[in-house]
TrEMBL record:
<dbReference type="Pfam" id="PF01061">
    <property type="entry name" value="ABC2_membrane"/>
</dbReference>
<dbReference type="InterPro" id="IPR013525">
    <property type="entry name" value="ABC2_TM"/>
</dbReference>
<comment type="similarity">
    <text>Belongs to the ABC-2 integral membrane protein family.</text>
</comment>
<feature type="transmembrane region" description="Helical">
    <location>
        <begin position="21"/>
        <end position="44"/>
    </location>
</feature>
<keyword id="KW-0813">Transport</keyword>
<dbReference type="InterPro" id="IPR051784">
    <property type="entry name" value="Nod_factor_ABC_transporter"/>
</dbReference>
<dbReference type="GO" id="GO:0043190">
    <property type="term" value="C:ATP-binding cassette (ABC) transporter complex"/>
</dbReference>
<feature type="transmembrane region" description="Helical">
    <location>
        <begin position="50"/>
        <end position="67"/>
    </location>
</feature>
<keyword id="KW-1133">Transmembrane helix</keyword>
<dbReference type="GO" id="GO:0140359">
    <property type="term" value="F:ABC-type transporter activity"/>
</dbReference>
<feature type="transmembrane region" description="Helical">
    <location>
        <begin position="104"/>
        <end position="127"/>
    </location>
</feature>
<feature type="transmembrane region" description="Helical">
    <location>
        <begin position="133"/>
        <end position="157"/>
    </location>
</feature>
<dbReference type="InterPro" id="IPR047817">
    <property type="entry name" value="ABC2_TM_bact-type"/>
</dbReference>
<dbReference type="InterPro" id="IPR000412">
    <property type="entry name" value="ABC_2_transport"/>
</dbReference>
<feature type="transmembrane region" description="Helical">
    <location>
        <begin position="225"/>
        <end position="243"/>
    </location>
</feature>
<feature type="domain" description="ABC transmembrane type-2">
    <location>
        <begin position="23"/>
        <end position="246"/>
    </location>
</feature>
<protein>
    <recommendedName>
        <fullName>Transport permease protein</fullName>
    </recommendedName>
</protein>
């Protein structure tokens, strides 16, 4: 636990001493919220009663950025050690890969909930949008997205570890593939039939479909949410397994040194 806390404390101290790291926690999230928030206000005025449920977009933007913050809290924190050429020193110490990743998970969790609190407050102050209108449904919504974001962060970290620092773009490009199939801004039914099968296996799509169902029909398919939770949980387990395999591959083939030379 002390080693995990040390990794967490190190990241906290880096954030405290660097304003751009602190801004990075919520800058892009707030930018997305302002963009989609004002678009929602405009569409609501133009459509009047016909688009009365359009404000659900604000909620989906808030929760999507929460997922991204979890993922980047893990993936980008890992990349900072790569950029500082500090990764090899950390992994050559008594610190295990499990302890190291657990520390990054705590960092991602803390920054994600901090960002969620700020976005929730801004959504209320600027757009009078109360994300807690979903009541107890917020618990499964946040839990599923948290697990999925965690899995994405671990998966992208494993990919970079396996293929080297030159593949760092994966930390942003892999998560960027998710929104078109998750129904963040439109129902999954909008997608072609073949792509709907992809959406079905993404935990995030079950959350955003559940949000729309709660707003438009006042009903929620609990089976879908349970399925989303199981998919997210399995993805986290699979990502940890892939990370462990990638780490063993790197050690076995002496590839860890490239994180100090490339």
């Amino acid at each position: 636990m002390i080693r995990i806390y040390a990794i967490f404390l190190r990241q906290v101290l880096l954030i405290r001493r660097s304003i751009h790291r602190l801004l990075g926690i919520f800058y892009w999230a707030l930018l997305d919220l302002l963009l989609w928030g004002f678009l929602t206000v405009y569409l609501h005025k133009v459509g009047q009663d016909r688009l009365s449920g359009i404000t659900v977009l604000i909620g989906t933007v808030v929760l999507w950025n929460f997922l991204m913050r979890v993922q980047q809290g893990v993936g980008v924190s890992f990349l900072e050690d790569v950029w500082a050429r500090n990764l090899m020193s950390l992994l050559a110490s008594p610190l295990s890969i499990r302890e190291y990743m657990s520390g990054l998970v705590v960092v991602g969790t803390t920054s994600a909930f901090f960002s969620l609190a700020i976005m929730t407050a801004v959504a209320w102050l600027l757009f009078s949008y109360n994300i807690f209108q979903f009541g107890f449904l917020m618990i499964p919504f946040v839990a599923i997205l948290f697990l999925f974001g965690l899995g994405l962060g671990i998966f992208t970290t494993a990919m970079i570890l396996r293929f080297g620092p030159s593949s760092e773009i994966l930390a942003w490009s892999i998560p960027a593939l998710i929104p078109p199939f998750s129904g963040v801004f439109y129902p999954v039914a909008t997608l072609p039939k073949a792509l709907q099968y992809i959406a079905f296996i993404l935990p995030s799509s079950h959350v955003f479909e559940g949000m729309r169902a709660a707003v438009f029909t006042s009903r929620v398919d609990w089976q879908n949410l349970i399925l989303g939770f199981l998919l997210a949980f399995l993805f986290v387990i699979a990502s940890f397994f892939f990370l462990h395999r990638s780490y063993r591959y790197v050690l076995r083939n002496g590839l860890l040194t490239r994180f100090s030379t490339e």
